[in-house]
Amino acid sequence: MSLPEGRGSACFETSELCIGYGPALIVQELDLSIPTGMFTALIGPNGSGKSTILRTLSGLHTPKRGTILLDGKSIASLPLREMAKRVGALSQGPVAPEGLTVLDLVRQGRYPHRSLFSQWSEQDTGACEKALSLTGMMNLRDQRVDQLSGGQRQRAWIAMTLAQETSIMLLDEPTTFLDLSHQIEVMELAANLVRNGDKTVVAVLHDLNQAARYANHMVMLKEGKVIASGPPKEVMTAKVIQDVFDVSAKVLPDPVTGTPMCIPIPGT
């Protein structure tokens, strides 16, 4: 994916970040850099800390130690509402209240920009219309969320996140439980938001080949540590896959895109 010149400086930077629940540390001494204006995929085995890192970057989980900088400023100094104006986060498997329409859901994305007694504005309407248009959900705006297909539902949630008008979007396993066609639908949408929408997208993904095909930047994690990070062609190597997943594999060019493609070798 080609990107305009000048994009790629770090939006998020962490230093000696330690994250855990209770006494257990899941992530230790994490130094991580997320480039601006790119699609970054966080990859690693279950329990490697991917979703925990994403929640912590969004400000929803407080680290035990270390620092997180957002455009050079510590997120610890930013109120939650201010963070929500700058970073949109979509958790894994979100559930909408029964009977909620797509438009009702998308309108909830305007919460960070509105005070308790403020009137609905033309700016709010414009943000929702743009979000519906970008995600191809305009003709489903009056449909109930619980009546949508899996791919449509995920696009509705992404539209809600887009309505926040943030420059950064954090997506936790956005393709989980979707069939192949809906996975492609969501991944194409995320890639297009980076390519055409001037967004930074960070997604936790499980499929190595999908990540390499759609992401500009990959971060391979194991036991809360970064094993490799950079462009897919540099990160997705047989050695890294062996080190991270303990799986022998051949890495070949994808016959469609030329991006690296992992072929596991059985019995090795």
TrEMBL record:
It comes from the Bacteria. It is a peripheral membrane protein. It holds the Pfam family ABC_tran. Residues 12-248 form the ABC transporter domain. The keyword DNA damage does not apply. GO terms for molecular function: ATP binding. The keyword DNA repair does not apply. It is found in: Cell membrane. Keywords: ATP-binding, Cell membrane, Ion transport, Iron, Iron transport, Membrane, Nucleotide-binding, Transport. PANTHER family: IRON(3+)-HYDROXAMATE IMPORT ATP-BINDING PROTEIN FHUC (PTHR42771:SF2). Belongs to the ABC transporter superfamily. This is ABC transporter ATP-binding protein. It comes from Roseibium algae. The lineage of its organism: Bacteria, Pseudomonadati, Pseudomonadota, Alphaproteobacteria, Hyphomicrobiales.
